[in-house]
Design brief:
The chain is α+β, with helices and mostly antiparallel strands. The protein contains eleven helices and ten strands. 50% of the residues lie in helices and 15% in strands. Helix 4 packs across helix 7, helix 7 packs antiparallel against helix 10 and helix 8 runs antiparallel to helix 9. 46% of the residues are buried.
Length: 380
């Protein structure tokens, strides 16, 4: 059955998190954006803990309040409408949690998932990107070797979101004796492990409130039991986690695009030239009509991919379509919105300027637009 409407429960969640986004997140966007690069803003951490957001992906058997994927996408659209920075921090947590849900043992879930619901911890990092690797996830310069009952990690992940605030890292590495896909493994690395060091926080154009820095592992010893999944399964686990993550990135792009369209629409109705609102001009009205149509299409692509996830069927192509279309829309919406606002949108204190800078990054994270097209083409 095809459904285009939300259930009463989903509507209640949508309303709850829109209210949170409007009163709790939106007022922080510009102040956080204007801060010097650093760790996660303490106000974001308090909201994350108060709402127990990480629990919404964790199954009830581990103490969570798991939501279906469609409902989670609805939630992410709302919080991204409020703050893309906050949403990205949250989604990084969800990536780490999802990796354990895909391939982790019961013992790993019992040990680490409760940490994600601990108000004093509750932050994780998803470490797969390497400086020279980019979109190539078939091998890593970060290596692991099995030595005396534990794994020893060496290498650098760069950039890493939430680095410095994370209570643990999910790290991908290639075994020293097998540099190919069959030698890729994922590991849970507790923050307190000896041998972890950090680079400076990056000063970025977009998503400035999301901490990104280099994380290096030098002879970091972790228990053998911290291997996620069977030996050699890391590549498959990563592909599953990233496919799933693309859908939620698509949802966040919908939230960003919606924020930009609403700002532009509100301004176009209020801004008068020669006694007429500029929305009465066909050039402006048609621009907003196209963006509004594309917004509906992007949301439905995201919801379709989420529905496939909830039904347990293949969603690889649908995830890439949703992420591709929604991220390209986010860029168009922020760019066209800036044209409509004109000089009102160009200042660093303007929300549209923030949305414009953030939107550019959405075409890069979780695989560039070109990567998404390659994935879609491979599924034709």
């Amino acid at each position: 059955m095809i459904a285009f409407s939300l259930s009463e429960k989903q509507k209640a969640i949508q309303q709850k998190f829109h209210a949170l986004a409007e009163s709790g997140l939106r007022p922080l966007v510009i102040p956080v954006d204007q801060e010097a690069p650093g760790s996660i803003d303490s106000r974001y951490l308090r909201i994350m803990a108060r709402e127990n957001l990480n629990a919404l992906l964790i199954p009830r058997e581990y103490g969570g309040k798991e939501l279906d994927c469609v409902t989670l996408a609805v939630l992410i659209e709302e919080i991204t409408w409020g703050s893309g920075d906050f949403s990205s921090i949250y989604q990084t947590n969800l990536h780490a949690i999802k990796t354990m849900l895909i391939a982790g043992t019961h013992e790993q879930k019992m040990e680490f998932l409760p940490q994600m619901m601990d108000p004093k911890k509750g932050i994780a990092s998803f470490c797969h990107t390497e400086f020279k690797g980019g979109s190539d996830s078939s091998s890593f310069t970060t290596t692991a070797r099995l030595e005396k009952g534990c794994y020893v990690l060496n290498g650098t992940k760069n950039p890493v979101m939430n680095a410095g605030d994370a209570c643990f890292f999910v790290v991908w590495a290639s075994m020293e004796n097998d540099p190919g896909r069959s030698g890729i493994n994922a590991f849970i690395v507790p923050r307190e492990s000896a041998g972890i060091s950090y680079g400076s926080y990056y000063d970025k154009s977009g998503y400035r409130g999301v901490p990104m820095r280099k994380v290096s592992f030098r002879n970091v010893k972790i228990p053998k039991n911290n291997l996620i999944g069977p030996a050699g399964s890391g590549y498959l686990t990563l592909m599953q986690a990233v496919d799933w993550g693309r859908v939620l990135v698509g949802a966040s792009c919908v939230g960003l695009a919606r924020a930009a369209i609403e700002l532009a629409l509100d301004y176009a109705k209020k801004r008068n030239i020669k006694g007429r609102p500029i929305i009465s001009n066909q050039g402006v009205a048609f621009m907003l009509a196209e963006l509004s149509t594309q917004l509906e299409a992007a949301r439905l692509l995201v919801w379709k991919a989420c529905r496939l996830i909830d039904e347990g069927v293949d969603y690889t192509s649908a995830a890439s379509m949703a992420k591709l279309f929604a991220s390209e829309l986010a860029v168009r919406a922020a760019s066209d919105g800036l044209l409509i606002l004109g000089q009102e949108g160009i200042y660093r204190s303007a929300l549209m300027d923030k949305l414009q800078r953030d939107a550019q990054l959405t075409r890069i994270v979780e695989g560039t637009s070109q990567i998404q097209k390659a994935i879609i083409a491979s599924q034709l």
